[in-house]
Amino acid sequence: MTVFQTWDMDFALEHLPELLDAFVQFTLVATVLGSILAAVLGLLFAIIRRVRVPVLAPVVTVIVEFVRSTPIPIQLFFVFYGFPTIPGIGFNISAMTAGVLVLGVHYACYYAEVYRAGIESVPKGQWEACTALSIAPRYQWQRVVLPQAIRNVLPSLGNYVISMFKETPFLYVIGVTEMVTVAVTQIGGDAFRYTEVVTLAGLIFLAASYPAAVAMRKLEMRLGHA
Amino acid sequence: MATPETTTAYETTGARASGEPMIRFEEVLKKFGDLTVLENLDFDVAPGERVTLIGPSGSGKTTILRLLMTLETLTGGHIWVDGEPLWHMPKGDKLVPANEKYLRQVRKKIGMVFQQFNLFPNMTVLENVTEAPIRVLGKSRDEANEKGKELLERVGLEAKYEAHPSQLSGGQQQRVAIARALAMEPRVLLLDEVTAALDPELVAGVLNLLREIAETTDITMLIVTHEMHFARDVSHKVMMFDHGQVVEHGPPDKIFTDPDHDRTKAFLHAVIEER
Ligand SMILES: Nc1ncnc2c1ncn2[C@@H]1O[C@H](COP(=O)(O)OP(=O)(O)OP(=O)(O)O)[C@@H](O)[C@H]1O
Ligand SMILES: [Mg+2]
């Protein structure tokens, strides 16, 4: 493959819709669903560890350690090819489902840390005020602690969404036809021209993540000065 | 100011015909690790009585209030609130350590106002005052709002229902905190140096509000303050602490003008010098 070819504008424009299509259908959808899963699961992990729920807390610790010490492609392989073969509990899942699950659980482990920091940033006096008002633990979390904790860590959560977004090309290893796969193996492979489509894919990533990163920095500054 | 029917702190049974004291400390022991903060502490507070705790820094005043609010755990002895054991629950004819649910039930009778206000910054002023009545007392939102507005009006904040705590002065925040505590209709109100974090010009307003509440309600109050004029005005009894022990106690006129103990004299002298 020769990377440095002359730029063919027609070829680029011709394939732009295919790239955008794959971008929306797989890259964006995987990021959105993965982030939602990560946000919910991460919160559960953080609360389970903070409250030290028996049995569950050590399980979460094991999951977190496992996820954080293995690379995403291995986890994708394991879930997509390995999980269906487990006797008794395994069943077939689509590549996209496996991808969303892995990204979601993977990032849940990082989100859990972020939430933990957020929960710790809520002053002790807030908990004490809840006790003094006899507010039940459920409402202490729901109405007092989490709204403040999440607000404090919103920028960090947002930055992890951006970083998950940039890791969606890994879904390639289990055959999800996300944008980079389409660019490299489908369009590029068929025409033996890579420059335009790979550049376009890069630009699309840049166009989406750069403004998001700037927005997060702004949010961080606003919250910091609040 | 009316004197309650009893100021006898140490008699073991309430002097009132109706019986029990509102608060009773019985051989209370509190340790932080190896540090013994309260030891063998006994005292009673009658219903409706307002008691000011004075004493040098570190003598255990805050610890007493925090034990009552269940913000610290009791190391030994018993605390009774309105006839019920606070840290223990009856099981058969024995007392066993209280569980969380029981604790929550008993401490509903107690409210606390903190030095640092501890308002909920994510809620409006009105929400701060209505949150617990809705979630804990099960009031409807309308009912809680109505009562909340009434209380906020009483503390002089009728124009600030929709404001957030960060938009208020320290004095206003503390008024909201007082309204928030009163909204739970406590039998006992604990006030721990509630004006200590305020700018000097805001102190008088908050103290006057507390004077007004003292005059118009029969809430039992335990007050920790360095505002000796205020203590003299509102309290039926002053208890002087040192090293987790009651040095002496009596009506404010007696303690402030003619205390029996040298330690009380020295302490009062130091406090007055400071001002
Ligand atoms: N959480 C804690 N851990 C360890 N020691 C503590 C803790 N809280 C209080 N103490 C100690 O207990 C003692 C009594 O403290 P407390 O706050 O009750 O005193 P205080 O009478 O309220 O003093 P001040 O007038 O300074 O507020 C002090 O020696 C203090 O250092
Ligand atoms: Mg104190």
Describe the structure.
The complex is a heterodimer of chains A (226) and B (275). Chain A is built from 8 helices and no strands. Chain A is mostly helical and 226 residues long. Chain A has one domain: Orthogonal Bundle (MetI-like fold), CATH 1.10.3720. The model of chain A has no long low-confidence stretch (mean pLDDT 90). Chain B has 275 residues and is of the alpha/beta class. Chain B has a domain at 120-185. Chain B is 35% helix and 25% strand. Chain B contains 9 helices and 12 strands. In chain B, the strands form 3 sheets. A 6-stranded mixed β-sheet of chain B has the order 8-9-10-3-11-12, with helices on both faces. A 4-stranded antiparallel β-sheet of chain B has the order 2-1-4-5, covered by helices on one side. In chain B, strands 6-7 form a two-stranded antiparallel ribbon. In chain B, helix 3 (125-135) packs parallel to helix 5 (170-182), helix 4 (141-154) crosses helix 5 (170-182) and helix 5 packs parallel to helix 6 (200-216). The A-B interface holds A 123, 125-126, 128-129, 131-136, 139, 143-144, 147-148, 151 and B 69-71, 104, 107-108, 110-112, 114, 116, 118-123, 131-132, 135-136, 180-181, 184. Bound molecules: adenosine-5'-triphosphate and magnesium ion. Adenosine-5'-triphosphate is lined by residues 32, 35, 37, 55, 57-63 of chain B. Adenosine-5'-triphosphate (ATP) is lined by residues 32, 35, 37, 55, 57-63 of chain B.
